[in-house]
C-alpha cells in the first residue's frame, strides 16, 4: 500500500472539524497528524469527535503544530476572520490547504493566488464539498442560458457567521458567466422595508434565511413565460460534505496554484 497522506485539521472542535476528524480516521489512505482549535485543550481529537482515542491531541497554535507534526495537507473549517492567516501559515510551511471556510472575497482569492505562486504550493478553496451542491451549481448555470431571470434562496442554521453563503456566491458567479446581462424586476420597484429584495449580485437577488433546525440548503429559482423552474439541494447532515473533503485531500498535492471550487478538481 502507498504511503498515507499526512493531514492536519484546523478548527477540529467545530461542527465540521469533528466530522472531518472522523472521516480522516476512517479512511485507510489518510493519517491524522494534527488537530488545532484555539482553546488547545489537549483532549484527544478522536474522543472530541465521538470516537475511541487516536493519540492526536488538540493544540492551540497552527505554526507550532505544523512544525511538530509535518502534515502535507491542512483541512480548514474555522471562521472567516482567521482563515486568511491560516492559509498563509500553511503555505509558508509548504502545506497544501483544503479550505471549506467561507466568507472570502475576490480580493482574498487574488492574494491567495499570489501566495500559492510565491510558496510554490497548491491550495483548494471550496465553498461547498457536497457533490449534490456542485451538480446544483452546474445545472443552475446551464438553466440560466434559457431562463435568465433568477433568484437564489439559501437556508442555513442560525449559528452561521457569513451571509450570503459561499455556495450562493459561487452559484451567482457561475450563472453570471453564462447568462445574458439583464435587469430583473420592475425598474421602479421600491423597498418599503430595507433589504426586502435581498442582496444584489450582477442584477441577481440572493436571499439568506437563518433558522435553528436547518443545516445547509439552497434553491435556485428561475422564472420564464408562464413557467418556473426550481433547482434545489439539501445537505441534511454534515456527512454530506465528507466524500468531497476526502477526494480533495487526496488530489490537492497534484494540483497547481489556487483551485477555486471542488468541481475544478474532480469533474
Ligand atoms: N465548504 C463547505 O462545504 C462547508 C463550509 N462550511 C464553512 O466552514 C466554516 C466552519 O463551519 P462550522 O464547522 O459550522 O463552524 P464552527 O463554529 O462549528 O467551527 C469553527 C471552529 O473553528 C474554531 N476556530 C476559530 N478560530 C480559529 C483559529 N484561528 N484556528 C483554528 N480554529 C479556529 C472555532 O473555535 P471557537 O468556537 O472556540 O471559536 C470552532 O471550533 C464556516 O465558514 C462554514 O461556512 C461549513 C460546512 C460546509
Ligand atoms: O456554514 C455552513 O454550514 C455552510 N457553509 C458553506 C457556505 O457558506 O456555502 C457550505 C454549506 O452551505 C454549509
Automatic annotation (TrEMBL):
Keywords: Amino-acid biosynthesis, Cytoplasm, Diaminopimelate biosynthesis, Lysine biosynthesis, NAD, NADP, Oxidoreductase
Coiled-coil region: none
Localization, UniProt: Cytoplasm
Main enzyme class: oxidoreductase
Leader sequence residues: none
Domain Dihydrodipicolinate reductase N-terminal span(s) in chain numbering: 5-129
Keyword rRNA-binding: no
Binding-site list for NAD(+): 11-16, 42, 100-102, 126-129
Catalytic reactions on record: (S)-2,3,4,5-tetrahydrodipicolinate + NADP(+) + H2O = (2S,4S)-4-hydroxy-2,3,4,5-tetrahydrodipicolinate + NADPH + H(+); (S)-2,3,4,5-tetrahydrodipicolinate + NAD(+) + H2O = (2S,4S)-4-hydroxy-2,3,4,5-tetrahydrodipicolinate + NADH + H(+)
E.C. number(s) listed in UniProt: 1.17.1.8
GO biological process, one term: lysine biosynthetic process via diaminopimelate
Subunit structure, as described in the record: Homotetramer.
NCBIfam families listed in its UniProt record: dapB
Function: Catalyzes the conversion of 4-hydroxy-tetrahydrodipicolinate (HTPA) to tetrahydrodipicolinate.
Record-given protein name: 4-hydroxy-tetrahydrodipicolinate reductase
Species whose genome carries this gene: Heliorestis acidaminivorans
Gene, per the UniProt record: dapB
Amino acid at each position: 500500500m502507498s504511503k498515507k497522506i499526512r493531514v492536519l485539521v484546523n478548527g477540529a472542535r467545530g461542527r465540521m472539524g469533528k466530522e472531518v476528524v472522523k472521516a480522516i480516521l476512517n479512511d485507510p489512505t489518510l493519517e491524522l497528524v494534527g488537530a488545532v482549535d484555539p482553546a488547545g485543550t489537549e483532549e484527544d481529537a478522536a474522543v472530541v469527535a465521538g470516537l475511541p482515542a487516536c493519540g492526536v491531541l488538540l493544540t492551540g497554535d497552527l505554526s507550532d503544530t505544523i512544525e511538530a507534526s509535518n502534515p502535507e495537507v491542512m483541512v480548514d473549517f474555522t471562521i472567516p476572520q482567521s482563515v486568511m492567516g491560516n492559509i498563509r501559515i500553511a503555505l509558508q510551511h509548504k502545506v497544501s490547504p483544503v479550505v471549506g471556510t467561507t466568507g472570502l472575497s475576490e480580493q482574498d482569492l487574488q492574494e491567495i493566488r499570489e501566495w500559492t505562486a510565491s510558496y510554490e504550493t497548491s491550495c483548494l478553496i471550496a465553498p461547498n464539498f457536497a457533490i449534490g451542491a456542485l451538480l446544483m451549481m452546474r445545472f443552475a448555470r446551464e438553466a440560466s442560458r434559457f431562463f435568465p431571470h433568477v433568484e437564489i434562496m439559501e437556508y442555513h442554521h442560525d449559528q452561521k457567521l457569513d451571509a450570503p453563503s459561499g455556495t450562493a456566491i459561487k452559484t451567482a458567479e457561475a450563472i453570471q458567466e453564462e447568462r445574458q446581462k439583464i435587469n430583473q424586476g420592475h425598474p421602479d420597484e421600491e423597498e418599503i422595508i430595507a433589504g426586502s429584495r435581498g442582496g444584489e449580485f450582477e442584477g441577481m437577488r440572493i436571499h439568506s434565511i437563518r433558522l435553528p433546525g436547518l443545516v445547509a440548503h439552497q434553491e435556485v429559482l428561475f422564472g420564464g413565460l408562464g413557467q418556473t423552474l426550481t433547482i434545489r439541494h439539501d445537505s441534511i447532515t454534515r456527512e454530506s460534505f465528507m466524500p468531497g473533503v476526502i477526494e480533495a485531500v487526496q488530489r490537492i498535492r497534484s494540483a497547481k496554484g489556487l483551485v477555486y471550487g471542488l468541481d475544478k478538481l474532480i469533474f
